[in-house]
Amino acid sequence: MNLKNGTIVTEFILLGFSGQWELQIFFFVTFSLVYGATVLGNILIMVTVTFSSTLHSPMYFLLGNLSFLDMCLSTVTTPKMITDLLTEHKTISIWGCMAQMFFMHFFGGAEMTLLITMAFDRYVAICKPLHYRTIMSHRLLNGLVILSWITGFIHTMSQMVLTVNLPFCGPNVIDNIFCDLPLVIKLACIKTYTLELFVISDSGLLSFICFILVLISYTVILITVRQRSSGGLSKALSTLSAHIIVVTLFFGPCIFIYAWPFNSFSGNKILSVFYTVITPLLNPIIYTLRNQKMQGAMRKLQFVRVSSTQNF
Known about the structure:
This protein has helices at residues 21-51, 58-84, 94-127, 132-135, 138-163, 181-185, 193-228, 230-258, 269-289, 292-311, and strands spanning 11-14, 91-93, 173-174.
């Protein structure tokens, strides 16, 4: 995929967070700590799910994959944002910009599909508990995870194939902390109305539909549990609340950014930070603090590691 010959712009300027030097240092320290906690927290979940025999179930298998996607999604933009806080000229090459958008939508599309899979897993576990192990087999789980990656790849390629060949010959300033499709497409030297509609339908409408489908599945679960027993409703709410929070945190910013006409959209840096920095950190916190089984498995692995160290 080559850029057109008329392309003049070779890099974009990211305005990022402008302000006094002291404020830039504050953001640098804060985001560095948050990103470090994100990576460590998600790695801890992946290691715990992998090596703890008590967590070898479909739900925790999917949780481990979600942690991996969260870590990758944050890594696409956060390290660049952190280093830009220490530089006066915040620039990114046009190919670096395209790579950012490619991997953001790749991991984002994969996570969107994975969250639907997790909702289906909870539906089977709560509404069909006797058939849970039969339905959620290893073969189906592996197939659904592979499908999520394939969906993410198709999702990003369908947009990037059209975006990467756009000619950029005018303004090259992006008022955000990273390259994002709506802001980059608006900088093209040609009319992009058709492409804008495609991105809105591909990213925005798809995010909205998936979000509604997930909420419907959780509603069906709650209705089913309530019909069976009133006491089970509180337990189901406790189990699903973490999932609902994660789904809302993920789909909310996607719908807000991509489901509106580009002319009415301006880069919201706070929303961008929340989507790429905060949400990937909140996911491991939500799942570990609200899950006694996960906490017990972590303590058990720590005890095993300390015991093996003392033996040596």
